[in-house]
Amino acid sequence: MASLSLDIAVAVSVWVEVLLYGVYISLFFESLYIVVKKKMINTRPARVFLTVSIAMFFLITLHIALNLYRLLRGFILLREAVTPHDYFLDLGRWDNVAHDLINAITTWLADFLVIYRCFLVWNNNYYIIILPALMVCMSIIANAVALHLFTRVPYGTIFGPELVHWMNTIYSLAFAQNSMTTSLIAYKIWRQDRRSVAAGITTGEKTSLIPVVRIVVESAAIYLLELLVLIILYALKHNAQFILQEAAVPTVGIVFTLMTVRIALRSSKTLMTTARAQGTTQPHIAFHWAATDSDSKVTSGQVTSDATGEFECSCKRR
User: What pTM did the predictor assign?
Assistant: First the structure.
């Protein structure tokens, strides 16, 4: 059985979540500033990303507030009546069910944004997102069953046979779906960059979309790595999985806002550098939404940014 006691795991998990929440909240307001400053809310996709991102912010904030409430009750207010160990083993308590429900809803919203971004990058191709969307639907069903079982199983059965299959399904679906959508997005951007190079439009690193691919993959890798460790810890029945479970909530927000900030910083830096350049190629970098026809003549490289709009590197010859 796990060597880390449950009460210590819960205390550490809340501390880690608070730490990550501090990182997330700074990135969230910085990304919000970028959206407002660049006036990137004039299109429907941009408004969708902004609205869902704000909803995620409130859910993540509510999740950490509820976790602090549980910590206070478990270690202080109910310490004499119920030990912290027994308190956190009671999966059917309303605060535990509510806290897991918020976790699930936040994850579903993040999955929706990833799938929606993939849909836009692939030129509104519905076939591309069928499998990821089915995975999210399966995840919703698995989460609903798990939450229902929380109210019916006895103490300490988070690793029991009643829940183990459903929890493994939830974690595996989240990992597979995010891996698939991230790979599809990265591949589409990479292919667009290769076409731009072949057409002579992309002439160097300043106009290449490869750095954007790196940003997308690196940002998504943070959450994927966390999910992978969580899957391993749960399979080992180690209480440290609670730490990763709580950390996953602010990490979802960090991934989305970090992508927005990094792409915006690269856009601004490239624009300032190329604006002073003289030659036959005049690069223009901007954030906006646009659809491209994959069969048409290559004239630009385009990629969806995180939660704001579309990053376009358009280099026209003269």
Answer: 0.82
